[in-house]
Specification:
Blueprint lengths: L17 E10 L2 E11 L4 E5 L6 H8 L7 E6 L2 E2 L5 H7 E4 L11 H7 L13 H13 L15 H14 L4 E5 L7 H18 L2 E5 L3 H7 L2 E6 L2 E6 L1 H4 L2 H7 L2 E7 L6 E8 L2 H7 L1
Parallel strand pairs: 3-8, 3-9, 6-7, 7-8
Antiparallel strand pairs: 1-2, 1-4, 4-5, 9-10, 11-12
Helix pairs in contact: 3-5, 4-5, 9-10
Bound molecules: adenosine-5'-triphosphate (ATP) and magnesium ion (MG).
Magnesium ion binds next to helix 1.
């Protein structure tokens, strides 16, 4: 990775808490998540893991106020997020949804400028700090040479990096990313994860990310939340969550879990699919 430029510390005071209380979520008549109480540790990196359809994106979208709860609430610094004005929420929390869609013809630079919206004044006047933040975000994602290109003319991985750049330009104390490494090759995956690690370490930025790659989730997070069928199966340090039992019960896979000597973090080696009988016996 290239060296980091100095990062402007976010202007708003860092939040002290993001939590859900008795949160029930769903679509139309269908309930997907029921009575969820979850606190995202501030200043830490949380990885949310779980099988397809378990409710990860639903939880993430509600936490970022993109989905209205059917019951309960999300609290940012003890205040119901539904009652905080949109711009204020966007100054504290940036979100990269899963599979975002963009208007046709939008250039990378325009997209990244959108991240500055919450910082701009009345009538959308922009400042030197806005231009600096946009340039910085483009640099961090190695997209300087792509700034004039339209999103539809990019590869899947380049487009994903453009969305990450938009979220970075927002310069919020909390960054929520739903599968930020999708479409990225291994080098670019590690680059994004290392960048998030640096932002966390240097600025105390709270990072909440959904990851499918369990070894990366364990390696790059301080806190893991394993979701199964809309509930928390277990949460804690990677050591506590990344277990044989997680693989078997939640993902239906027999695996060995070992400790990486260099990072000291657990990693799994999948062996085979577990049968339903195995999974039931283990749970
Ligand atoms: N817009 C929607 N309308 C109706 N049902 C939805 C909608 N979005 C998600 N669901 C359903 O809610 C459940 C949870 O979906 P969610 O997207 O939260 O899963 P996920 O854990 O993020 O899965 P993935 O790993 O595939 O992204 C699924 O059964 C899904 O079909
Ligand atoms: Mg999802």
């Amino acid at each position: 990775m290239t060296s980091m430029a100095t990062i402007e510390v976010p202007t708003s005071a860092p939040p002290t808490e993001l939590r859900t209380s008795d949160l029930t979520l769903g679509y139309d008549d269908r309930i997907v998540v029921r009575s969820l109480d979850l606190t995202f540790p501030i200043g830490r990196i949380t990885a949310v893991v779980g099988p397809n359809g378990s409710g990860k994106s639903t939880i993430i979208r509600a936490a970022a106020r993109l989905l209205r709860p059917k019951g309960g609430a999300v609290f940012l610094d003890g205040k119901a997020i539904a009652r905080i004005p949109t711009k204020e929420v966007a100054r504290r929390l940036a979100v990269l949804p899963q599979g975002p869609s963009s208007p046709e013809g939008l250039t990378v630079e325009r997209l990244v400028w959108n991240g500055r919206y919450p910082h701009q004044g009345f009538l959308g006047t922009s400042s030197a700090a806005d231009a600096e933040a946009v340039a910085w975000a483009l640099r961090q994602t190695h997209l300087e040479d792509f700034s004039e290109r339209t999103l539809d003319a990019l590869s899947g991985g380049e487009r994903q990096r453009a969305w990450i750049a938009m979220a970075l330009a927002q310069q919020t104390p909390i960054l929520i990313l739903d599968e930020p490494t999708t479409f990225l090759d291994l080098g670019h995956q590690l680059e994004v994860l290392e960048l998030l690690g640096e932002l966390n370490e240097r600025q105390g930025m709270t990072v909440i990310m959904v990851l499918h790659e369990l070894n990366q989730a364990a390696r790059y997070s301080d806190h893991m939340v394993a979701v199964q069928a809309g509930s928390i199966w277990r949460q804690g340090t990677p050591d506590e969550v990344m277990t044989k039992e997680l693989l078997e019960v939640v993902f239906g896979v027999h695996a060995d879990v070992r400790v990486d000597e260099i990072s000291g973090k657990p990693y799994c080696v999948p062996l085979s699919r577990a049968t339903e009988a195995d999974t039931e016996a283990a749970s």
